[in-house]
Amino acid sequence: MIAQVVPNGRFTHENIRRLLSEFEQYEKRTPVRAVKIEGEFSCDTVHGHRTSGTGYLAIDSEGFPYPIDKVVFNATYVKVEEKDDGS
Fold it and tell me: How far apart (Å, rounded) are the C-alpha atoms in residues 33 and 77?
């Protein structure tokens, strides 16, 4: 089990890099609704209150808002073009 080789079961940026070969690759299946927001904003997420600089406000699959840094958003998400039926 991977958590057993990490000190105190605490994952950090440094020890994750050494363990990348243990990780499998996944893709998100659920489209995400998001809106770009210029300037600082905050929201109450499922994990508590979060504040963000310019970025995106997204809605998770359960309807909770969460902020996404613009650099992370642009590297992770691509816009889904709407179909002719408006969906």
Answer: 11
User: How far is 73 from 55, CA to CA, in rounded Å?
Assistant: 8
**Full-prediction pTM beyond 0.85?**
no
**CA 74 centroid distance within chain:** 11
Averaged pLDDT of the chain: 86
Q: How many domains does the chain have?
A: 1
pLDDT single digits (tens) 19-30: 888 888 888 778
Q: Which of 34, 24, 27 is nearest to 68 (CA)?
A: 34
* Domain span at 20: 2-76
What single-letter DSSP state applies at residue 41?
E
Give the integer Cα–Cα distance in Å for 58 and 15: 29
